[in-house]
Amino acid sequence: MRLVICDTVDYVAEWSAKYVAKRINDFQPNQNKYFVLGLPTGSTPLGMYKKLIEYYQQGKVSFKYVKTFNMDEYVDLKRDHPTSYHYYMYNNFFKHIDIDRENVHLLDGNAEDLEKECNDYERKIKEAGGIELFIGGMPMPSISTLLSPDVTTFNYFFLM
After folding, report:
1. How far apart, in Å, do the first and last CA atoms of the chain sit?
2. HSE of 15 in the Cβ direction (CA atoms, 13 Å)?
3. Which of 69, 85, 89, 154 matches a 20 to 30 Å C-alpha distance to 102?
């Protein structure tokens, strides 16, 4: 485990975005080998998403061969509702980068059988080869985490 203590939210955003971009670029994803990224929502990762969009626009990273899986969604909230995680992710990240919409995975909080939806989601993650990098939020102000492929040990903490 590595602990990174940051003085500002902007530093957390920049460091996180640089780390994500480096991991994607070092992986050298292609049509036969996708980088699989687990993503959160909320205020903590928003700055990171803005920086990743900036890096994409500057040609520093591509999401063409990236698959994403978000960690959660509200139940009984329409996808286009301003507080849904679908809305959040598309408006704050996905519509600004070159990711193929078929490679974006979010839970369906309106599924008739939520347990089946969760099981299907886990199956899709396994079929994608597992998550290479998981970015998670913690229920404390200004803390986010990055997890490695086994997703059982913490690699980075960002503390504000």
Report:
1. 18
2. 19
3. 154
Tokens matching residue 24: 């994607």
Contact assessment for residue 21 and residue 61, using Cβ atoms and an 8 Å cutoff: yes
Is the CB of residue 147 less than 8 Å from the CB of residue 136?
A: yes
The strand pairing partners of 87, in sequence order, are none
Residue 97 in contact with residue 60, Cβ under 8 Å? Answer: no
Q: How many residues does the chain have?
A: 160
pTM of the model: 0.84
Does residue 156 sit in helix, strand or coil?
Answer: strand
Burial track 64-96 (b if 16+ CB lie within 10 A, e otherwise): ebbbbbbbebeeebeeeeeebbbbbbbeebbeb
CB 33, CB 64: distance < 8 Å: no
Q: Check: CB of residue 38 under 8 Å from CB of residue 133.
A: yes
In the chain, what are the domains?
9-137 (3.40.50.1360)
Decide: 142 and 5 in contact? Cβ < 8 Å.
no
